[in-house]
Amino acid sequence: MAIVENETGFAEADIALSEATARDYFALLKPRVMSLVVFTAFAGLFLAPQPINPVMGAIAILCIAVGAGAAGALNMWYDADIDAVMSRTARRPIPAGRVSREEALAFGIALSCFSVATLGLAVNWFAAGLLAFTIFYYAVFYTMWLKRATPQNIVIGGAAGAFPPMVGWAAVTGGISLDSVILFSITFLWTPPHFWALALFKMRDYQDVGIPMMPNVVGEKSTKIQMFVYAVLTAIAGVAPALTGLAGPVYAVFAGAMGAYFVYASIRVWRMPEGDQKMIPAKKMFGFSIFYLAAIFAGLIADHAFALVWGG
What we know:
Tetracycline Repressor, domain 2, Four Helix Bundle (Hemerythrin (Met), subunit A), 2 domains, cell membrane
C-alpha cells in the first residue's frame, strides 16, 4: 500500500487489490496431485489394523488434504520463476499474475499450520508430526534444494508423495509398521518412472529453466534403463501387501497383472528411438502410471472391504 496526495491535497491510500479468485487459490493447492494424496492417505487409514471413529477419520483425511495443498502452494511460491518459463506451468496463478508470490507464501504457511495443529489436537501428535515433516520435506528439502541441485531429485524427493498413506495409518495407530512402510514403498518406487516419463517429453522445458532432470543430465538411454528397473521394483512392491497378509490372493493376482503391464510399458519406452519427437510410448506410460497407482490402492481398499464383510 502506498500513500499518495490527491488533487485536493489530502492523502489517500493507493491499494493494489489482488485479482485472485477462489478458483486461483484452489489451483495453488495442486488439486490433481492432492486427489492422489488423499486417496492413498485414505487407503492407509482404512487398511490400518484397528478401526477409527468416522469423525476422527474424516478430520484426519481433511488435514492431510489441506497439508498436501499447503505444500503445493509453497512449491508454486518458490518455483514461480521457472513456472513462468515452462509451457505446462505458465498458466498457474502466480506466473499468470493472478496471485502474488507473497499471497501464495502466506496462504501456504497458514494452511500448513492449520493442518498440522488440527491433526495433532483432534487425532494424535505422531500423525501430525509426520504430516509436518511431509510438508517440510516437499516444500523445503525437495523444492528449495533437491529439485535444482541433482538429477536424483525425483528419486529422493519422491518420498514426500509417499508419506500420506503412512500418515493415514499413523492417524489410526499412532505409529508405523511394516505394512505402512510397504504402502510408502509402492508410491516411492513408482515416482521415478512416472515422473521421468513426463520428463522425457518435456526435456526442452527443463533444459530452458536449468532443472537437472535425469534425461537432460544422463541422456535418454540411461533414463529409460532406470525407468525399467524402477518399474520392476514397483511391480514387486505392489504385490508385497499379499505377502505380509495385508491383502489376499485375489489382490495379488490383480497387482501382479497391473505390475506386469507397468513393466511392459517401461520396455516400450526403452525401445523408443532416441530423439523421437512424438514420444508416444512415454506419454502413454505417464498416463498409465497414474491409473496404476490409483488402481493398486483401490485394489487394496476393495480387498480389505471384502475381507471385513466376508469375515463378518
